[in-house]
Amino acid sequence: MDDKPAAASAVPPKASSRRRFLIKSVAVLPVAGGLAACDRPGGVTASASASTSATAGTDGSSAKPYQPKFFKPDEWSVLQAAIDRLIPADAEGPGALELDVAAFIDRQMEGAFGHAAAWYMHGPFHPDATPLAGYQSPMTPRDLYRTGIAALDAYCKAHFGGKPFVQLTTAQQDTLLHGMDSRKVKFEQTSAGHFIALLWQNTKEGYFSDPIHGGNKHAASWTMIGFPGARADYLDWVAQPGKVYPLGTVTIEGKA
User: Fold this and answer.
1) What is the pLDDT of residues 127-166, one digit of tens each?
2) Which of 4, 33, 105, 255 is the most exposed place for a label (fewest CB within 10 A)?
3) Does residue 57 lie within any of the structural domains?
């Protein structure tokens, strides 16, 4: 099927500084106060509504390995492999896997965001419409994940000697994800471009959201970019532009 041209790259450029790229990306995400205000079809972003139904600790940690509620075992493996390539661990900071981003996404699939509960989901749908026209697909986010992951594995098996996504080399995975983002890779079942855009958006949200929502374990991404978090106020610092804030990161629950 034809894909909508991307307004901006959904996959980090290989040669760029990951820290600079992520700082630029986080500028548009309301990470301190959660994501509830963004649960609308105009911008495909996850909400905080699923945070109360998860079994993982509210600081993003868990005494036991997180058990996905929505994703099936094979889907879970693909999701983990994909987010590991979107935000890999390196010398500049932890990766999406280390910060439990997969758990964040799984929790969202069981909440209002995953079901598009508050969205207008009736046709007609115009995939080439401006983003200002709202969400343009009959698929809910959970439907798009399920269909998109299956389509991704089917594409891999057809083009990589029967190997699924998780068995590809990291270089092959990166090339494929960039191909989806640039609309060079086409899926038969759904739009590869729409799927990678949703996955990348939710990966950033899980990486930078408050740990109460399941991702950003120990608020490590905030520490990496120097974001102090959800402190009571910053009134004493409003008139001091450029001065380094001296206090550490604090989460919504008051954990440093």
Assistant:
1) 778 878 888 889 999 999 999 999 999 999 999 999 999 9
2) 33
3) yes
